[in-house]
Amino acid sequence: MSLFALATAVALAAPGTRPPGTLPALPDAPPFAGHAQPLPADIITKMTGVTWREGCPVPLSGLAWLEVRHWGLDGTAHTGHIIVANDHADAILGVFEALWGARFPIHTVRPAHEFGGDDNAMMRANNTSAFNCRPVAGSSRFSDHSYGYALDLNPLINPYVRGDKVSPPQGRAYLDRDADIPGLIHADGPVVAAFAAAGWPWGGNWTRAKDYQHFSATGR
Fold first, then answer.
1. Could you list the residue range(s) of the whole structural domain that residue 101 is in?
2. What are the tens digits of pLDDT across the range 3-39?
3. How many domains does the chain have?
4. What is the pTM of this model?
5. Local structure of 28: helix, strand or coil
6. Is 138 in a helix, a strand, or coil?
C-alpha cells in the first residue's frame, strides 16, 4: 500500500472528533518516553564526512542525540532518533512529548546520515530529521539545519511550495492543506502549537513560499 493510501485509510477509519492530522485516541496509551545525551561515539563516526565535516558552523560537542517515542502512520508506537543543538534539546523533547499526547503520527524519525545527508532522499521517504550540515538550496549559505536549529517533519506529506515548484515533487498529492490526513500539519493543529511553545516558528506561515515541513529557532 502506498503512503498516501495508508494515510487516507487511517483517516477514513478514525471515529469521533479529533484534531485534523492526528490519530484516534486510545483509552490506555503508554506514556511518552524520550531522553537526550551527547552524541555517541559510533554516531560521530557515521556522521563525520557525511552530515558533519570540518568547517561546519557547530562542533560535534554542540549537538545532542535524542531518542523519542512517537506514533507512526500505522497507529502504533515507534522509537526514533534525531540530532539537534544542545541548547534546544529539552525544548524539542517537549515538542515530541506534546505530539505524542496529541497522537500526531510521524512516519519515521531517523538522523540524516542514514540517508547519506541527501535531503531529497529524506523528503521522498517522508523522514523527519533535524541536523544536517548543508547549504540552503540554491545558495552557499549554511542552512539552520547546519546548526541543529531546524527540523523538517513528515516532509513528503508537508512539502515545500513556491509558485509551481513542489519539493519533493511527490508532495504534490498533498497540496490540499485542509485534508484530514494523518501526519499533515495544520495551521491550527497540535504541531504548530507545540513548536510555537518551543519558540520555533513554522515555515507554513512564510509569505513568498510555504515550507510546510519546516520549523526553526530563527524563523528562517
1. 33-133+146-216
2. 434 343 333 334 457 899 999 999 888 999 999 999 9
3. 1
4. 0.90
5. coil
6. coil
